[in-house]
């Protein structure tokens, strides 16, 4: 028992939690709570379980093969058409998508900083972009891991404390957590909650970072212990944000358009302390995602183009530099990010099944040796993929009907 407890620690899975708890999650979770109360908390429970199933495969792939998902696809996918399709998909879904996300990440961090300093300034996205670039330029995985662990812990303290201050309705909270329901008009919100948690680019990030952290299949227990700590903690943060918004907004004559509105509207309900905590949490969420989005893009693109995962190589650095630069420009233009982030999260949910199928294929390949997926793991992965496909098709139908 003691040896198993020692295997529970923070590691690459913390990067995954830091990646999916960004401003997009804060916005999506806040809107879910404000519009539907506690009714959609079950979607986050499913999201956490689905994330753990997929991220375990990603971590195992990295530890066993010492490759990222992009490298595995490039080296083992023999059909040229499929290989080019995979490359195009990675560029479209991960690199281009993360460029847009980065603008939202820097905007979210700037909103959090403005909440702490008392005023919004045009220079904030640039300063935060330079800070992210400086940390990534060091090319030290250990440094990035430590910084992101610290940011995840800050987010946990800020959002969970705010949740407790807001005094949720505990009976409705547990009902929403364990009794699935789909209120009228909530389908796209469910898709968005799943899309903001089970993020496709995290599959690339986790596999590559696990390969750097651990060099032997005998270390798989540590990788799984890391997963058991970090992913549920990230899910708990999302649940806290939904519940805080539900307590503050649901059933009240208040309109919520973004995370900054949530922070300000908490003041009469829970006092200045909750407002400050929300600002701190939003800043940490934005900064952590401002690091992980460029990092994941660089891992994915460098891997699938055959440049490897050396954090100090020029192809790697140029990729994340481009992502940060585009993000700074988007954030500095003052575009309201709420709608962009919202629809990007929905698109993430639709792209997830394709990326997950690549991962399942890789984990059943002969390169995994004795560590290939068992039938139980394939069954769980198939369930996750099928549910994701079903939700994606329903969201397309709803969007077409609305159009």
From TrEMBL:
Segments crossing the lipid bilayer: 38-59, 80-101, 121-140, 147-166, 186-206, 227-254, 274-302, 314-335, 341-360, 380-402
Localization (cell)? Membrane
Lineage: superkingdom: Bacteria
One GO term describing the cellular component: plasma membrane
Q: Name one GO biological process term.
A: iron ion transmembrane transport
A molecular function (GO) held by this record is: manganese ion transmembrane transporter activity
Task: Give UniProt keywords alphabetically.
Answer: Membrane, Symport, Transmembrane, Transmembrane helix, Transport
Q: How does it sit in the membrane?
A: Multi-pass membrane protein
> Which NCBIfam families does the record cross-reference, listed alphabetically?
Nramp_1 (NF037982)
Q: Could you tell me what this protein is called?
A: Manganese transporter
| Source organism of the structure | Pseudidiomarina halophila
């Amino acid at each position: 028992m003691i040896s198993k407890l020692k295997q529970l620690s923070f590691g690459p899975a913390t990067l995954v939690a830091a990646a999916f708890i960004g401003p997009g999650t804060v916005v999506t979770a806040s809107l879910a709570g404000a519009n539907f109360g506690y009714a959609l908390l079950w979607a986050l429970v499913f999201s956490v379980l689905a994330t753990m199933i997929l991220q375990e495969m990603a971590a195992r792939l990295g530890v066993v093969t010492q490759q990222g998902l992009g490298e595995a696809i490039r080296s083992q996918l023999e059909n040229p058409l499929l290989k080019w399709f995979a490359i195009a998909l990675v560029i479209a879904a991960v690199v281009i998508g993360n460029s847009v996300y980065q603008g939202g990440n820097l905007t979210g961090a700037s909103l959090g900083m403005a909440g702490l300093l008392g005023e919004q300034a045009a220079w904030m996205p640039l300063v935060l972009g330079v800070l992210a670039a400086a940390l990534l330029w060091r090319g030290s995985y250990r440094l990035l891991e430590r910084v992101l662990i610290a940011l995840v812990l800050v987010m946990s303290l800020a959002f969970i404390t705010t949740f407790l201050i807001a005094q949720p309705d505990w009976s409705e909270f547990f009902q929403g957590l364990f009794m699935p329901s789909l209120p009228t008009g909530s389908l796209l919100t469910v898709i968005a909650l799943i899309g903001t948690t089970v993020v496709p680019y995290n599959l690339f990030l986790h596999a590559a970072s696990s390969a750097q952290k651990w060099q032997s299949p005998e270390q798989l227990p540590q990788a799984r212990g890391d997963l058991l700590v970090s992913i549920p903690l990230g899910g708990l943060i999302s649940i806290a944000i939904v519940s805080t918004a539900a307590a503050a907004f649901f059933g009240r004559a208040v309109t919520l358009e973004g995370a900054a509105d949530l922070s300000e509207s908490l003041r009469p309900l829970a006092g200045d302390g909750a407002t400050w905590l929300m600002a701190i949490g939003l800043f940490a969420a934005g900064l952590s995602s401002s690091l992980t989005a460029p990092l994941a893009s660089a891992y994915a693109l460098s891997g699938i183009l055959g440049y490897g995962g050396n954090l100090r190589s020029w192809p790697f650095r140029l990729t994340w530099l481009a992502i940060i630069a585009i993000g700074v420009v988007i954030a500095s233009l003052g575009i309201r990010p709420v709608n962009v982030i919202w629809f990007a999260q929905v698109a993430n949910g639709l792209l997830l099944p394709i990326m997950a199928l690549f991962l399942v294929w890789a984990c059943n390949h002969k390169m995994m040796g004795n560590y290939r997926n068992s039938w139980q793991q394939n069954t769980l992965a198939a369930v996750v993929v099928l549910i994701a496909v079903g939700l994606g098709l329903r969201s397309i139908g709803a969007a077409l009907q609305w159009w």
